[in-house]
Amino acid sequence: MPQLYIKICGLSTPESIAAAVDAGADAVGFVFAPGSPRTVDAELARTLGGTVPKSVETVGVFRNQPLAEVLDIAKRAAVSTVQLHGDEPIEDVRVLQAAGFKTLRAFSVDAFEALPAKERSLWDAERILIDAVEPGAGVTFDATNVLAEPPAGMWLLAGGLNPGNVAGLVNTLKPSGVDVSSGVESSRGIKDNGLIADFIRAARSAE
Asked: Is 121 part of a structural domain of the chain?
């Protein structure tokens, strides 16, 4: 089985970036979606991302923003990967890939379960993320239906993960990777470097 892919999201300081990289994260995420307490600007993300080894993905997270705006910010931030966390169609993913970005498409668990079989098959070859209905709220979800018919390709589990529950959920749901933000915070939007290391250690222990 391939090594579990671990993404630490919503980072905004050199210290939290270093904590994630040093602990062995595969990706670090910068939030560009408006309205989040974790939102950063492209210039800060570019500076922070410049300290990250090439082996670690830098991910820009967007939510229902115009594609031209996504491309502009992603280029200015110099991220390697764009994560779409709204209702974006697969055509937007194709445009981003053609522009040279890796991609991740996030679905709430409800939205993923509601996809007709034909539409779901369009995403089989893409990297996707399955999240709670309210992203960033630190709430887990009922994964019964996901277990019954899991995604066909690479998929990340998100939503309410923390150092205490990630190993058990990985062992039960068998995702390709995990994504955490609020679960490694001391308060909303403020990362705890110790929790970041604890989370990565716990996630790796499930493999």
From this structure: yes
